[in-house]
Amino acid sequence: MASPALSQASTAFESDVPQAQDEQLSKRGYLLRRAREAATSQDILLFLIAFRILNALSIRTFFQPDEYFQSLEPAWEIAFGANTGAWITWEWKNQLRSAIHPTIFAGVYRLSAELSKLMRLTPVYRTDLLLAAPKVTQAVIAALGDYYTWKLGERVYGRGCNEAWVALSLTVTSAWQWFCSTRTLSNCLETTLTVAALYNWPWHWSVDAACDEPVDRYGLREDPGQAEELA
After folding, report:
1. CB atoms within 10 A of CB 110
2. Angstrom distance (rounded) from CA 198 to CA 204
3. What share of the chain is helix, strand, coil (3-state, %, to 5)?
4. Eight-class DSSP state of 220
5. If we measure between CA atoms, which residue out of 156, 217, 145 comes closest to residue 178?
6. Cα-Cα-Cα-Cα dihedral sign, residues 144, 146, 149, 150
7. Comparing C-alpha atoms, which of 151, 159, 200 is closest to residue 30?
8. How far is it, in rounded angstroms, from Cα 149 to Cα 157?
9. Residues 130-148: tens digit of each pLDDT
10. CB of 148 closer than 8 Å to CB of 199
């Protein structure tokens, strides 16, 4: 006859098995759900990049001088040196502007030039590559702005909500976004950085703290939504 202690241990073990199985199934379901969400996010990002590249390469109009004289012209001089045909305006000559934004396109120019040498492109194709490369770069920046607009909508209204999809639809179908977002203006980069910053900002830190709220190792409040997902 089994002892009471052995019976209790057997009962506890039997009760722990379904609980462990439930936790494993719950974790597996969570991982599958996150995998589907990641696949959806990746698909949307790839679509937005392709869409904005088409957008950038199809634009043939002139909007503002700054899309050239405050970005591409200084970038050309940074990439290929002085006396290479770049039109440099007075504020650049007097060092009144930051070179961070043009430096991005200077790197694109240098990479395109090296790639054209490696591929032994003719002057015509080299010119086409140098013209298209900044546009494609800005298209990726614009696509990231669209993507984080959608993610910010999910952050505000909830994952998979209709409001987030409406926000994505509005930014994709906006005539102004089509006309302006893929131009090499510093404002376009600033817009994308702002939307990404709003999405990643820890908004829960601004809410009044409760005594039982979880905190991280720095003593800062954790995101309740993330805490529930990781539990």
Report:
1. 14
2. 12
3. 75, 0, 25
4. P
5. 145
6. negative
7. 159
8. 12
9. 999 999 999 999 999 999 9
10. yes
Dihedral angle of Cα 66, 167, 104, 125, to the nearest 10 degrees: -80
pLDDT at 172 over 80: yes
How far CA 178 is from CA of 42, 56, 72, 104, 182, in Å, comes to: 22, 8, 20, 22, 7
Q: State the residue for tokens 């950038």.
A: 56
Residues in the chain: 231
At residue 228, the pLDDT reads 47
Q: Where are the alpha helices (DSSP H) in 59-99?
A: 66-69, 72-80, 90-93
Q: How far apart are CA 175 and CA 117, in angstroms?
A: 38
Question: Which residue shows structure tokens 């088409």?
Answer: 54
Q: Which residues are CB-neighbours of 105 under 8 A, at least 6 positions away?
A: 71, 72, 75, 79, 134, 137, 184
Query: Left if phi > 0, otherwise alpha if psi is -120 to 50, otherwise beta: which for 85?
Result: left
Residue type, 176: W
